[in-house]
Amino acid sequence: MSFHFPGGARRASTRRPAAHDPLSAQGAPAHDTPRSSTTATRRAARSRTRALLTALFVLGLAVLPSAAAAVTPAVPSAAGDTDPTASSAEAGAVSTTLVSMSPTPVGPGDTLTVVARIHNGTQDTLENPRATLGVNWRPVGTRSALDAWAEAPTSQQVAGRMAVEDLDPLAPGQDTTVTFSVAADDLNLQPGSTWGPRPLSVTVEDGGERLDVLRTFFLWGESPAPLPVKVSLIAPVTGPALGLSSTTSDAGSPGTTSVEVHAVDEAVGADRRLGRLVSATADLPDIAWAIDPAVLAAAETSAAPASHAWATLVRQGTAARTVFGLRPYDPDPAAYAQVGAPLPATTTPLPGGATLDPAWRTDLTYPADDVLDLRTVRASVQSGSPLVVVRGDGLAPEGSVNHTPTGLATVTTGAGPATALVADHQLTAVFAQATSFERDADALSAADATQRLLADLAVVASERPTETRHLVVALPRSWDPDAAVLSTVLGALDGASWVDVSSVDELLSSPVPDVARTALPEAEITEGTLPAAEMNALQRARTEIADFATIATDPAPVVQGAEPALVVPSAVAYRSLPDERTEAVDTAVKGADMVRSSVSVVPRGLDVMLINTSGNLPVRVRNTLDQPVTVQVALRPESGLLKVVSFPAGPVPAGAEVDFKVPVRAIGSGDVSVSVELLSVPAGTVVSPPSEFVVQVRAEWENTGTAIFAGLVALLMVGGIWRTIRRGRSPRRVAELTPATGVPGAQGDATPSGRSTGHDG
């Protein structure tokens, strides 16, 4: 049965109704406690006291429960006694959802039609449910008043009664739909009434008990609408966290670390967030995209056909759209800012050798935190991205600003000014909640969210009806849109004369308003941010790679080749995966060490022996890079027994090994551990992990050997002399030297005996 009130709702008094009597707007009587019941309660209390003092303990225990029940009569509670913070679910789990409202806006001669769905989530049957449509004739003039009405609890006053519908009994878990149709001429809005939103309510009762209130708005549009409010939307196309893998090579060659792309295959599926996001927005060029180019490149590199199809849809969807290319692998700017490091370059190599589309803008930072700190803004400016997105309540207008300004602000930093895209917090929250694929039970319906957005923008337009302003809806990284709902909501915004959905480029061409805004915090660390210790480990590895690359003829390929693995662990997507992130950091650091091992000292199998006071120690250097390098070999003895005269330097061809002779001088004898380092030329920076070997210094062996040799020579000389002397004194030699008997004179021409002279006698 329906009850309509063609005379319209009575104009509300300027006095606020009593808080304990919110039903007075509908004419329902308040439920006051009878006086006789209070008197009976007092008497029962006195009787109970006397009984407890005089009765036996056992008898007292027996009568105590009944006495307690007697003094606690069931009294119907007034609606005003309801906890103002209680939700409708707590009041009975009966929920009311707006299905549709038309037309938008409502004008003279129109018929306002409101369709609502009522769900009985209790365990009891609603025997006599009733739904009441309420409308207030006063417009909502401020955004704070709009929020106050929309967020008011069930117990608070509802709008003036316009129509009542008696419903059939509603069993637990059942739904029913109620439709209200009210002529605009019955809304008690006189000709020439102010343009703008009005409160509307649908109240659900059962047996006079209020169970739920749907609070929304309708738009009255008899008079001309103000200048439209421009609205720009931007959605991040980011995630998931890409992995890293390491491979080992043959002996003598270092392993490699590469980026795994298979995580994209699951993330871009039709039933996944990225798949739904691109499908829902591909044909809506008014929504700007902030894309991680590594995700797109990974999808194009993948062997999965679905990933290729998604990548194709992205490429097609970038046409006629504002696209911001974020830094590859979506590094978390807060992680770099906390250690004072610059953000990774936009030229970081992409999977599969893909390149960034030159039509994309690369000057935007889309932080993971709603309100980023000044430290992060400064790091963004220093890294060449002076455009930052600020969400939440960051940079909100101060209380002295009585209107909603354009969503642009200038942020001053030590590195220079930054331009902030200041998202409208209320619009962003309602839009994201209403269009999400998976929504909470208490989330706004698409119709309710549409009315809320239209009402909110109507209030903004009415603040300064002759001034055009431009607002921003910056969606969260977790936004997972429902394509049908998104199309409905955007269609309603496009159809409203006081709303103009525009591109972000148009917003950026607008002047920055000169309004007072709250300051950003200087420095804050949000939960989930990459710990400083792990971030510093990545930075040290990055510095070591940069130093190592200086020995190459062309350093750029060396640095660029190692950079992706060092960026991946800092991705925003890893905030929710701390354990996997730590593992990725370890893999990246080890991968950097493997890169530096591409030029290394060939290990020695045996110790080196030095038996002289000076000499050259051989050091073999291996280069497995595909280009020549120039290195300097440095020896670092751990003992003063060995002194290095100089560090030799020279080239090592690609894929070759070269021996370097390091001049040294021995001071004493002993085993000396020597560390070998490869240095850059001429900076002298260590560019390779150190290697060690042992030098057996035996400096006294040279003197000992010389003495032994000299002794041997002396012995040989003495032996020779002695042999000569002995040979000169032999009998034969003496006989040859002594003259024969009877020969006159000792002349040298005497004829030796035994030899004929040629004469007979």
Structure in words:
This protein is α/β, with parallel strands linked by helices. 30% of the residues lie in helices and 24% in strands. The protein has 18 helices and 28 strands. Strands 1-5-4-7-8 form a five-stranded antiparallel beta sheet. Strands 9, 12, 13, 18 and 19 form a five-stranded parallel beta sheet that branches. It has a five-stranded mixed beta sheet with strand order 21-28-27-23-25. β10 and β11 form a beta hairpin. α1 runs antiparallel to α2 and α5 packs parallel to α12. It starts with a strand and ends in a 24-residue tail after the last helix.
Structural key phrases:
761 residues; 5-stranded antiparallel beta sheet; 30% helix; single chain
Rg, rounded, reads: 47 Å
Q: Based on DSSP secondary structure assignment, what is the total number of beta strands?
A: 28
Shape: elongated
Whole-number mean pLDDT: 83
Cα distance spanning the termini: 187 Å
Topology:
Elements: E1 2-4, H1 35-54, H2 57-70, E2 94-102, E3 111-120, E4 129-135, H3 143-150, E5 161-166, E6 175-183, E7 196-206, E8 209-220, E9 229-237, E10 243-247, E11 256-260, H4 263-267, H5 273-281, E12 287-291, H6 293-301, H7 305-317, E13 323-325, H8 333-338, E14 364-365, H9 374-382, E15 387-390, E16 408-413, E17 416-422, H10 425-435, H11 446-463, E18 470-474, H12 483-495, E19 499-501, H13 504-508, H14 532-549, H15 555-567, H16 578-596, E20 599-601, E21 608-610, E22 614-623, E23 629-637, E24 642-644, E25 649-652, E26 657-666, E27 669-679, E28 691-698, H17 700-728, H18 731-737
Parallel strand pairs: 9-12, 9-18, 9-19, 12-13, 14-15, 15-17, 21-28
Antiparallel strand pairs: 1-5, 2-3, 3-6, 4-5, 4-7, 7-8, 10-11, 16-17, 20-22, 22-26, 23-25, 23-27, 24-26, 27-28
Helix pairs in contact: 1-2, 5-7, 5-12, 6-7, 10-11, 11-12, 14-15, 14-16, 15-16
